[in-house]
Request: fold
Amino acid sequence: MTEPRAGRPKLSSPATIAEAACELFFERGYEATSIVDIALRAGVSRSSFFNYFTSKSDILWSSFDARVDALRTRLDAGESGAPHVRTALRAFAAGFAPDTLALAMANARAMGLEDELDRESAVRAARIGRSVSAALQSGADPLAADVVGAAVGGAVLAAVRAWAAAGPGRTSLSRTLDDAVGVVAPLLPAQGGVRQLRLVVRSADLDGALSFYRDVLGMPEAEAFEGPDGARVAILDAGRATLELANTAQVRLIDAVETDGVESDGMRVALEVGDVEAETQALVHAGARLEAPPTETPWRSRNARLRGPDGVQLTVFQELGPE
Reply:
């Protein structure tokens, strides 16, 4: 008579343990859940738990920490400077998929994780900040590099929280991180001789132009000066400044998309906004002439073209992110 074969033992995996842990965090709260509880729910031994995780907190942070380690390696190994930091951050965010940490951040209160996430987020932000600071140290003031590093580290964690809250998988972390880093971008030390891009517009009606750009578009007034004989100037903050250089073929392509081929001016001001339809309506109401309504472009933005005060041609655009 053949002896019956023993059943195969239940396979353990990080995903199985993490799923069991999250169930218990929802049921009992993070602090009231022990490693033994998690192992029992997952159907594994305590020693099997430690084959995959070093602690209860590691269940939440292990994948994120691996990405932080890779980010720090890139920052330490590459060239110094702000462009290198931005490239490393884009690599960090690429392919970021929903995981246990995203679930925890989106449900921190229900899982009793608010204090845990606050503590551990600060640790990760500091680690990122130290590496960013080191990457910026060359040719930069050490204090400024430390301040910028801390800001970038905070921006990374803020972006992950915002991405999780929006529903991980519904939005791109890369886009959210770009937005977060854009907030601190003015702090990043400039490379080369140019420290700021400033567009100077001669205005026949300065008060009208201020109303249009400052009050309607929402560009805050950074500085204002008056001089003799009624001379006045106002400097408005336009967020991140870039210079786009396009050859004739590219300009024709853009014109074909935005205006059905109507030729654009040799110099055009493009302003990124959060809601292109609403901003276009507001600008037309404020006196701008609509040259082309909001149109979706092949490069995933919605662009509208207008003629603003003093004949300045404007494109207002909204980035749509990945499909």
Remarks:
- The beta strands are 221-226, 232-236, 269-272, 289-296, 301-307, 313-319.
- Residues 225 and 231 are 8 Å apart (CA to CA).
- Confidence is low (pLDDT under 50) at residues 1-10.
- The chain has twelve helices and six strands.
